[in-house]
Amino acid sequence: MGGNDLDADVESATPETLAWRFLVDENLPRYLAERLRAETYPAEHVVEIGLRGHMDADVYAYAQQGQRTIVTTDVGFGSLLHYPPPHAGIIVVRLPDDLPILRRIEIIVAALKQLPQQMLNDTLITIEAGRVRVRKRS
Fold first, then answer.
1. I need a surface site. Which of 16, 17, 71, 113 has the fewest CB within 10 A?
2. pLDDT one-digit tens code per residue, 11-46
3. Nearest Cα to 21, choosing from 48, 47, 2, 40?
4. By C-alpha distance, which of 51, 46, 40 is closest to 16?
5. How far is CA 126 from the centre of its chain?
6. What is the tally of structural domains in the chain?
7. Within a domain: 26
8. Is the predicted pLDDT of residue 2 greater than 60, yes or no?
9. 27 belongs to a structural domain
């Protein structure tokens, strides 16, 4: 599957972001992946890699194969039954739909900055208005 040059993103990553690699689901704008890359986080959007319209299981498999943390609004990815550890991490974004897209992206980026050097493997992170919940699964 094609895509951007994720290896170049890894080369420019800072020590605290080096272990973080993101896969942004299609229910979030492509601009989020661009913004994450601008913050030195290696990131891809499912559209960039040809997974638009694919089943969640395909997106999950691709993310795990590349040790990418999924960023999504799909609460189904938070299901331990369907997506149990081990995995590279899942971030579920639960922000109001009426919030402007750029504001939603800023909240997501700010939430990630609250987690410096935290390993995301086997972790479910929920980003909500005014709080970030982190659940480490084992």
1. 113
2. 444 444 446 999 999 999 999 999 999 999 999 999
3. 40
4. 40
5. 11
6. 1
7. yes
8. no
9. yes
Please give the residue range of the domain that contains residue 107: 6-136
Indicate whether 17 belongs to any domain. yes
Is 1 a member of any domain? no
Cα–Cα distance measured from residue 17 to residue 19, given in angstroms and rounded to the nearest whole number: 6
- The enclosing H or E element of 91 equals strand 90-94
pLDDT at 84: 86
> Tell me, what CATH number does 55's domain have?
3.40.50
List Cβ neighbours of 31 (8 Å cut-off, separation of 6 or more).
101, 105
Of the candidates 15, 60, 12, 64, the one whose C-alpha atom is nearest the C-alpha of residue 37 is 12
**Token pair of 50, please?**
């040809």
Report the share of the chain in percent with pLDDT over 70.
84
Q: Which two tokens stand for residue 29?
A: 């704008």
